[in-house]
Amino acid sequence: MKLHLFSLLSSFALLQSVSVAASLGSTAAHDLLNRAVGDSCKAPEGQGSCLEASKCIGITYKGLCPKDVASVQCCVKKTCKVGGDSGYCRSKSRDGCSGGTFHAGHCPGSADIQCCISKSTSPAPKDCRQDLSCTFAEIEAMSMTARLHYVKTMQSKFFGPLRAGNQFRAIEGVITFFIQNNLGKPNTWASYVDAGIVEGIQNGGANTLGLHKKDGGNPGTKLWSDFFQTMKGGGYASRDKHDYGWSISEQAATDYGKQLADRKFKMTEQEKRWYKFSQLFRLIMRNKGTSINAARAAIVALAASTRNPALLVFLPKVDDLIDWLTDITKIEPTICLSKAVWDAVDPDNNPVELAIVFPKIILQLKKCFENN
């Protein structure tokens, strides 16, 4: 009997609520019976959403979300700006501006609605570049312009005591070429490879300076650390030994970046060309005698094929050309070689053969060399 009576009372209450809602009109009835947290609402300051008042960063209004509990109110978010600072319009009397200050005259509506500017008291996040502690992911997320600045900063602010303040101008040249040709955006194959290069240099330098002992899993770190230790101790016994140490360190870091890139991306034709260039540069650094012979043969062949014997006058300068090209303290050689190889190398022609590539690029290299 009690259960039957309870059912009757519940049915009566439901009929009464529907009757009341119907008397308000179809739109009002729908709002009354169906509005919930997250629904839209209309306030004097404009369209809003039904939210817990404590979660509203804007202006709150009671009574505009009637189906919800009293703590759910209509929240209207309006942004405002005072000088160079951005904030939200809030009610000075209802909402307050916890941790910030109110500024009148920057929000529409009554004088009670003012711009709340919050000043964060939490310390700014540490920039990993300040102590050479960037992870691979942090470097990879940088634009090429940011990476170029970072490589320059490492040399100017950190690597001086290691006698290596000018040892990565060649890397600057490659990154500059990327920037000029809109290559290497974050989350691309080329970006991953380049991030491996920069990470290896960074960690090798940081390890040698005693800033940290991390290697990031990058095998280039140990080789670069050995390179820095040798430079710090007075340098290499010869240019050839220096160039060999530099090139194997850069090769290891590049291969690591490529390994990560290959797991996630497929090389584009453009990226194939760039990788061919990087391989060619290191090949020349480690095989100068072969490179000089190939360059001389290319000039002789060009002089014959173009019927331009004047090219032969350049033969005595080929040694100087190769020395200039592999001078990692200059930015111009890698920019020039990048462009020359980019324009000349067929990405489907494997492997890179000096005898094939040099005749295509030697005139451009000669021109750059003579202009510098």
TrEMBL record:
Residues 1-29 form the signal peptide. Keywords: Signal. This is Chitosanase. The lineage of its organism: Eukaryota, Fungi, Dikarya, Ascomycota, Pezizomycotina.
